[in-house]
Amino acid sequence: MNTITRRDFSKTVAAGVGAIAAASSASSLFAQSGRRLKIGHTGITWGFQPDDASQAIKDVGSLGYWGYESFGNVLEAWEAKGGLDKVLQANKLPLRSAYCSVNLTDATKRKDEVAKIAGWAKLIKKCGGSIAVVGPNQVPRATYDFAANKANIVAALNEIGKAVTDLGITPVLHQHTGTCVESRDETYAVVQAMDTRVMKFGPDVGQLQKGGSDPVKVVSDFKSIIHHVHMKDWNGGADWLGYCPLGQGKVNISALLDIFENAGNDMMIMVELDPNLPDPKPLPMTPLASAQIAKDYLHKLGYAFRV
């Protein structure tokens, strides 16, 4: 029969208490950090094509991110193959959102555009997501007349917002370079005019920085209606369209995170880094490596990832 001495017993208890204390300390570290929001990652770094999604989901899931953003047209393409939800489930990675490009300036196309994004919203819901990122259409910026298009943009956003909200999905306007809603003034004009009961705001902070705006100022001004964000850094370098892995650029990420944390909105921080497109030159690292850098950076700021 095996026996244990009082001394051995004391050592065992002490070791167990130490392990519990260590685990408790790790848990309390995140609790004390006050970080309530979870971190996801978009799929754009891996590419825009439906076939790119498999590797993107595998990599994002392997790093313990809490959610994934796809594209409306990618969800649609995968339906013919059984649905992207099957790939997400296999990698234990929930869908959070999908980027949905729509035409906001052409009123003659509005009915079809509303129907298109409503169809994508149904697929977002089918895959377990909750956010439709409304991406404005590209325009010739050199000759673009925002004042002449503002009314159509706002009307389209309100109709899209009503249709998507009625389906149980939250639509968010995403200002984007090269589109009909790009500059700081355009962003403010549209957001202040649209019906924020049905259309929320989902900024890209890297694009704000790249365009000459102060992301902290913009986010502070609209924090009450921000329900989604692309957390992207920018340094004006030669790769990733001038963007860079988190923590290596000029975006005040820490200040932005504090604003999002304190706003109290239902949202997920979506890490993003653009690929070298349309010029497909080789990147200095793989998408998996850049996603790992972002994870490590955010972990130091108090964010936990799935084990």
Would you kindly provide a written description of the structure presented here, covering whatever features stand out?
This protein is an alpha/beta fold and 307 residues long. It folds into 2 domains: 1-33; 38-300, Divalent-metal-dependent TIM barrel enzymes (TIM Barrel). The protein is 46% helix and 12% strand. It is built from 11 helices and 10 strands. An 8-stranded parallel β-sheet has the order 6-5-4-3-2-1-10-7. The relative contact order is 0.13. Mean pLDDT is 90; it is low at 1-32.
Strand order of the largest sheet: 6-5-4-3-2-1-10-7
* Uncertain segments: 1-32
Number of domains: 2
- Name the CATH class of the largest domain: Alpha Beta
**How does CATH name the architecture of the largest domain?**
Alpha-Beta Barrel
Average predicted local confidence, pLDDT: 90
What structural class is derived from the secondary structure elements? alpha/beta
Shape: globular
Helix content: 40-55%
Features:
307 residues, 46% helix, 10 strands, 2 domains, TIM Barrel
How do the strands and helices of this protein lay out in sequence?
Layout: H1 6-33, E1 39-42, H2 52-62, E2 68-71, H3 72-79, H4 84-90, E3 95-101, H5 110-126, E4 131-135, H6 146-166, E5 170-173, H7 184-193, E6 200-201, H8 205-210, H9 215-222, E7 229-231, E8 233-234, E9 243-244, H10 253-263, E10 269-271, H11 287-300
Helix pairs in contact: 3-5, 5-6, 6-7, 9-10
